[in-house]
Amino acid sequence: MIKSPLQKARSKYIPKLPQSLEENVKLIIGEKSEAIADKEAIKSIFPNTYGLPLVTFEVGELKDNQTLNVGVVLSGGQAPGGHNVISGLFDALKKLNNSSKLFGFIGGPNGLLENLFIELDSAIVSDYRNTGGFDIIGSGRTKIEDEASYDKVIANCLKNNIKALVIVGGDDSNTNACVLAEYFKEKNAGIQVVGCPKTIDGDLKNDFIETSFGFDTACKVYSELIGNIQRDANSAKKYWHFIKLMGRSASHISLECALKTQPNIAIISEEIEKYKLTLNKIVGQIAEIVKKRSNSGENFGTILIPEGLVEFMPSIKKLITELNDILATKPEYHQLRTSQEKRAFITELLTEESAKVYSSLPASFVKQLTLDRDPHGNVQVSKIETEKLLIDMVGDRLEKDKSFHGKFNAQNHFFGYEGRCAAPSNFDADYCYSLGYTAALLINSGKTGYMAFIQNTSQSSDQWLAGGVPITMMMNMEKRNGHVKPVIQKALVDLKGIPFLTFRSKRKDWATNTDYIYPGPIQYFGPTGVCDAPSETLLLEQDRISRAELVSV
Question: Catalytic: which of 201, 216, 428, 532?
Fold first, then answer.
């Protein structure tokens, strides 16, 4: 593998572990768990893995450890740090028992079904330490969701003497991990399943999963780009930049990047939903800020837009829900040839309220709303050009406003793939390594149906705490693809949380003033306060700042 000077330097970086994992460890059994919602329904679906206790690891005594053959699967979209999860898993397995082996399934869950794998040895793992991407074994979005597929996974694992699987993925992938753990337990297959929390969106979090890996790095990459654009905007002073950021189901990325860069406007989808703001209302609010800045001679600015914004506008959210049902249950729709036929077909099936909204939308926007859904039945919001729609609507609003005498010229951007495979920040390199290490300890302790966690992450890594949380504890019942299913509950931006309240207390000043922050690129070498710093979100969530101060703003 040809490496750049930075890659060569990064390969020598030794990820830091929590102090409790540096030596031999012992398992501490905590209280039994319950699902976050729909307890009886979740319990009935997962009778063998429901109610498991929380577990943590502390420094303990040396003991004999069995030989373990473990398979690892990277599932879903890429996120910085995945290679370090594998590195931590590999190192821990070898430390526990040098005869243990780690197998990587190729191309994600499909590798499990097709029995495609490689043995990950020291030479392979060393090539990928502290690097971005998932290219060590690849990833995929294949769904394993029927008994025939479960049995196929069992047969392939037993054929290769693999007795445990580590599923590295987001909420959907780890929901699948929970389903597999339950089925394997029911069938006495003798195969453990442990998950690791991955998604740059940041929506896989709760009282035990403080952050999903990749979020820190991706937000730092996006913030560098936003800062560069803001420097340009403040230099040229002639463009408004509408910047869409990844985050389909939650606005954690937009909020984090706003805290890092202080743009003039940052839209938070959860707030839009709470106050039931319409598209026209949002456009009006943006137009007013453009006018205020223009009156001060500043015909430029930056706006951050979460990728999933359209799904949080009440009327469009209702429309999308109805469209999801139609597309999932009316196969004849896909046989229609012209856009006019498709639009007429859908209009007939919509409720009166949604039909009115549907007919009012531009044809290009309607087409984007009815694109094929992703494997989980979700609208592909990355293909919906919300930023362009807002530019057009704000431009039209200002053109009709006789009191507006300034200039409005806009540029659109979408930052998504730019951050998914970046070389992990020191935080993510350490965090992911610790997650992989913890996953190996959970397997060695005989646990299944658990997700590895690392807590106290706003502190230095030696003070981090490691353990496992039962995946059933995070689950609730939701409608997917027209059917109600058990899934891990997504974590939305908490509008009463310190990160959002901090943003809310400052955004009026940011709107009219030019108080941009230019974060610059991720720093890998240098002062700890610069290189190892966690996200602004984590610092604020775990800080002792007075909530009363912010609530009163």
Answer: 201
